[in-house]
Amino acid sequence: MQPVILRMEGIEKYFPGVHALDHAQLEVREGEVLALVGENGAGKSTLMKILTGVYTKDEGSIELFGEPIDIQSPHDAQKRGISIVHQELNLMPDLTVAENIYIGRENVRGFFLNQREQNQAAEELLQSLHLNIQPRTVVKYLTVAKQQMVEIAKALSFPNTKILVLDEPTAALTDGEIEELFTFIRRLKANGVSVIYISHRMDELKQITDRITVMRDGQFVKSVNTEEVTIDEVVQLMVGRVIYEEPKMQSNVDPGAEVVLEAEHLNSADVKDVSFQLRKGEILGFAGLMGAGRTETARLICGADKRESGVIRIRGKEVRINCPRDSVRAGIGYLSEDRKRYGLCLGLSVEDNMVLPSLERLSTSLFVNDRKLTEVSKEYAAKVRTKTASVKTAVRNLSGGNQQKVVVSKWLLRNCDILIFDEPTRGIDVGGKNEIYKLMNELADEGKSIIMISSELPELLRMSDRIIVMCEGRITGELDIAEANQEEVMRYATKRR
Amino acid sequence: MKKLSGDKIDMNKLLAPAALIILYIFFSAFGNNFFSADTFKNILEASYYIGFMAFGVTFIIITGGIDLSLGTVMMCSALLGAYTFKQGCPLILSVLLTILVGVFFGLLNGLLIAKLKLPPFIATLGTQMVSQGMGSIITKVQSQTWPTATDLTGGWFKRTFIRANLFGINGFPVGALWLLGAFVIATLILHKTKFGRYTYAMGSNEEATRLSGINVDNWKMGIYILSGLFIGMAGLMYAAAYTTITPGTGNGQEMNGITGVVIGGTSMSGGSGTMVGTLIGVFIMSVLKTGLSSCGLQAPWQTFFTGVVVILAVLMDIQRTKAANRAKK
Amino acid sequence: MKMKKRIALLLALTMVAGMTGCGAASTETTTTDSSGTEEAAEASGETMYIPLLAKGFQHQYWQTVYAGAKDAAEKYGVELYFDGPPSETDIDAQVNMFKQELAKNPVAMGLAALSPESLYEVLDECAEKNIPVVCFDAGVPDDPSGAVVATASTDNEAAASIAAEKFGECEKLVEKMKNATPENPVVIGVIPQDAVSATQIGRGKGFVDKMKEIASQYGTVTVTGHEVWKDEADNASIIIDVEVPATTEAVSVQTVANSLLSTKGLAAVFLCNEGAVTGFLAAVSDGEDLAEGGKYAELVVAGFDAGAAQKNAVRQGWFLGSVSQNPYMIGYDAVEMCVKAAKGETVSDIDTGAVWYDASNMDDPEIAQLVYD
């Protein structure tokens, strides 16, 4: 067994009103990939911020290679060989790869930048990591996965980086890209770098990690060897309660059920001749790799983008959808993959967000009826079990799962019976995910029709009645849940022309 | 923790009014004859037109936009009103025209920003110059005069908008009633109507609002037109207070309005702010200016200290945002 | 807890503001107690507070007015407050200042009104409170309130006509006017800084009227340009062109000067105040274009008021000369009349006079004291 190189013990951290870390501990061994898992708010990020010098600990000790250390600042952490790659990429999109790697530590000759040497150094670094990236490339022209690797390269460009923290590195990656990243991580491991890997994607842990450390409510729960546990056991450790909706084995929808939404020959720049039908009470999964045209199709249906041709029918009647307003009126609610950007007004209250599309309907007189709005928003918040101090709380103070519920109730309140969930569980922790699954099943049982777009195949297979697979803007396959499995879906998803 | 952040917000709400009261008490103690009915009236009268401008631009700033044309549009409307009056137009029509000019430029700004998608900064920078130029061209660069209180024709103008012998008080500040009325209406619109809700929603996240099925373009147009209406009214209040309107002026007046809004706690990035904050912000500025002058400080000092207050106000706004973000973690 | 800290900070800052305020106030006001003249001390018993509100501060003209006022304040033992709006178009700022000073209940007030109409109501209040107002630099014509007791100012029309007379004596220009034809007219440019203030309108009028009278001996004269002074005639061989800048900023004046300079047949220019001179000089490379061998060496230029740049242009012979009022006396007389009016004495209007100065006489002692820097 490899020696322990980092030991954090008895770490305490208080924020005003919150005991964020309660005797947290962590051990990292040389050259291992250690998963750090826990629900949102479990204290993973806080612990990592203490390790990387963003926060200072209130109590506890940190030992690096057996020596007690006191980490003062991110810079200090980097000097000691501890680097972090954050979930949100922190690259300057308009600068080159080399400029990004050496930002703040530019190679200068007197007053001027020494571009040539800097590029050379970057090239050597990238080559040593077997990365096929040109140092002179402007970062925004790289794929997200490549950008991620530039971030990692940047972290490793500090001399003798020994510990690398990766915070949800796969959140924005496609399956192929994830594989690429994993190969890369394995190579780092072989070079003796220890990786602390934070992820919400349970299936990844089995593939890449050696050990798993579980945290809950700011406390250390358990460290286990990855080989010795099942994912469900890990999840149980994380949430401390029973989890997950039963996977669907066969479709719950009567094949003769009413067709509520029918798309015929939809076309746009990214969508090619897409036709499908959605039945009442159905959860229709959309699978595919990133860029397959799933989100783009959804945006056509909800009028966010203009379609070039094609017909949309609701309950057999053709509807004109040219802008989001038209689709909302037709009863289609879209839950974007990027809630913060397209779904919510973060600074406004839960209530304001929930009633936004329905104001026209709920307030027909000159002034809005505040009491009525509060009443209905309370009712719907309760209906979808939104956890919030009150409906007057700003949405930005809610957890990801509860934010998603606000978006759901926003559309329910608007009487939408067609709901498009685009990556509904992205960035939501395990407990929150299950809440969303449960809610979707309940909605479908009530007779709402749901389109579910997801890049996580396991959740699509667990939830859908039927799966449509897209590739390069086209529908390449349609599978009933009874016959669907990962291999089958992937075969269609990569069925290029 | 939830409770904690709740208390904090309440404290913040009290901060601006507290600052206003403290300033007033401070100057009453140290200023030369500051604590008097005359000075109080002066503070009111210097605030009317700024108040109207600030009410209008509050809506715009909450949507995350900006209007740099406020000052010159106000001057242009007052100028054209006076010009038509001088040309023999009945005063009541000139008064209406003054408001209409404001509405017209609001419409123009709205078209440029909501429909043609120009950035508000650029669009209103353009209308700033257009309105200033237009006023000068039509009046042939001559200053225009509104009727004074003693004029036989149109003496009612000042009695209606600035001061009159009312309720047995000689020189009752009628303008204060107009300001109060405008404040009540603006508050109702902002806080109690769909229009107001959409204003906040657009400022907080325009794309999310559009995807919620709201016709963002039209509502935004509406906001600029409403703001234009307030600015036209500001033109009237300016005319009533200062009588003579000089072409080629108004540059810099927009800052009076915007400063009031910012001191009142409305964030320049949009999505938050209140009308009552704006009202208090406007009065903080006038009390400060009048107060400094009662201490014998000349105009440059007043500008200097207004600047200091703006910086302090925005610093506090940033602190507030930080506190809000911390609450999230 | 943090909030308390913030309030404390705000308070402290306000205190500082107040303190600086007092400090600044004492530097700006000139107080003299018993050491002043005995009559004054006797008459008032306490120091008289008299505010003087000028049209602005930015020109050296007003600084000279202030100097005169300060000397008079010294003499009579007056606590003087001298202020003006940041720019000469800030009517609202001046009205607010006037109201605020009035609220301090001074014994008398001095005023150089930017816009008389804007001040009617406030003057009414002065009359009600029995506070006499002395106008300086510019009057309030037909003051309806009766608060204005007297005016100390230059007769602007008369002063500006001096420049026209000097143009009439300039052989170079007379020659050109004689030779002018409707096809090849001579242009005489006039730049008032604005078409709003009575001062500028009066100076323009004084010059235009006199110039027209003189030039009529040599041919038909037409007055073109700005509405206010326009008086057009057909087939004119001599054109008086009055051009007003869009704003009072030096840049706008420069723009107007440039367009005037490019006018064919331009032979002479009259600039109605220091602001117009400054803008004009900027358009002629600070005056060098007017020097011997320069681009506009032939141009005959006269200015109004003084100031370092204008004085230099006159001294170098680039300008034919300039008219100067007596700003020092304006300030001095204003305070003196305020004091008298406060004591209940009758005061009447004073013409503070104007002189022509050129390279030859500007160093004479009696002229030099009028021509401020």
UniProtKB/TrEMBL annotation, chain A:
It is found in: Cell membrane. It comes from the Bacteria. SUPFAM superfamilies: P-loop containing nucleoside triphosphate hydrolases. Residues 6-242, 255-497 form the ABC transporter domain. It is a peripheral membrane protein. PROSITE patterns: ABC_TRANSPORTER_1, ABC_TRANSPORTER_2. CDD domains: ABC_Carb_Monos_I, ABC_Carb_Monos_II. One of its GO terms (cellular component) is plasma membrane. InterPro entries: AAA+_ATPase, ABC_carbohydrate_import_ATPase, ABC_transporter-like_ATP-bd, ABC_transporter-like_CS, P-loop_NTPase. One of its GO terms (molecular function) is ATP binding. This is Sugar ABC transporter ATP-binding protein. The lineage of its organism: Bacteria, Bacillati, Bacillota, Clostridia, Lachnospirales.
TrEMBL record, chain B:
GO terms for cellular component: plasma membrane. It is a multi-pass membrane protein. Signal peptide: none annotated. One of its GO terms (molecular function) is transmembrane transporter activity. It is found in: Cell membrane. It comes from the Bacteria. Pfam families: BPD_transp_2 (PF02653). Its main location: membrane. The chain crosses the membrane at residues 14-35, 47-71, 91-114, 166-190, 221-245, 257-287, 299-318. Keywords: Cell membrane, Membrane, Transmembrane, Transmembrane helix. This is ABC transporter permease. It comes from Anaerosacchariphilus hominis. The lineage of its organism: Bacteria, Bacillati, Bacillota, Clostridia, Lachnospirales.
TrEMBL record, chain C:
The keyword ATP-binding does not apply. Pfam families: Peripla_BP_4 (PF13407). It is found in: Cell envelope. GO terms for cellular component: cell envelope. Keywords: Signal. InterPro entries: Peripla_BP_I, SBP_2_dom. PROSITE patterns: PROKAR_LIPOPROTEIN. Residues 52-345 form the Periplasmic binding protein domain. Residues 1-24 form the signal peptide. It comes from the Bacteria. SUPFAM superfamilies: Periplasmic binding protein-like I. One of its GO terms (molecular function) is carbohydrate binding. Belongs to the bacterial solute-binding protein 2 family. PANTHER family: D-ALLOSE-BINDING PERIPLASMIC PROTEIN-RELATED. This is Substrate-binding domain-containing protein.
